[in-house]
Amino acid sequence: MTKDVLVSISGMHTQLLPELTEEGNESIETITPALYYNKNEKHYILYSEIAEGETRETKNKIKISKDGSVEVMKSGVSNTHMIFRQNEKNLTYYQTPFGQLLVGVNTKKLDVKEEEEKIEVNIEYELEVNHEPMAECEIKLGVYSKGNDSILKV
Question: Residue 4, Cβ neighbours under 10 Å: how many?
């Protein structure tokens, strides 16, 4: 894997609370340049994002470990440290410009596929906010060496 990579993130959040289903299910998809490095048999992906309506950036770090866990750390406009491990529920605080939320992620499925020039991760989880079930979620993450045309097939 090269140091300079492209990260593809797509996801779907299916609302569980009837009062929120009017807002519809939410899907996201983004491709962004990132930096990649491997240290102590862990994959690290670093990138920045600017949320809609914001001028400040949030720095993101994704750590993929051989032990079957994926960690997402955000710092800046939003701050959190979410840990995904299959068949485990993890609680964390998610600091936003509007206040702090207690977020639970109950990981139902976590698949990591590694190849020389790409890493693909699929995570299915239940999302809770302040101990209330909020959504069923799926995230697909692809990390591709720049110049690798695999990203075009996502």
Answer: 12
- Tens-digit pLDDT string for the chain (154 aa): 789 999 999 998 887 765 554 555 678 889 999 999 999 999 999 999 887 777 789 999 999 999 889 999 999 989 999 999 999 999 999 998 889 999 999 999 999 999 989 999 999 999 999 999 999 999 999 999 987 655 555 4
Residue for token digits 């206040």? 99
Distances (CA, A) of 96 to 22, 51, 80: 23, 11, 9
* Phi, psi (rounded to 5 degrees) for 117: -110, 10
HSE-up of residue 86 (Cα within 13 Å, Cβ side): 11
Q: How far is the C-alpha of 86 from the C-alpha of 108, rounded, in Å? A: 6
* Distance, CA of 110 to CA of 152 (rounded, Å): 23
Contacts of 77 (CB under 8 A, 6+ apart): 51, 54, 56, 57, 58, 96, 97
- pTM confidence score: 0.88
In angstroms, how far is CA 33 from the centroid of its own chain? 15
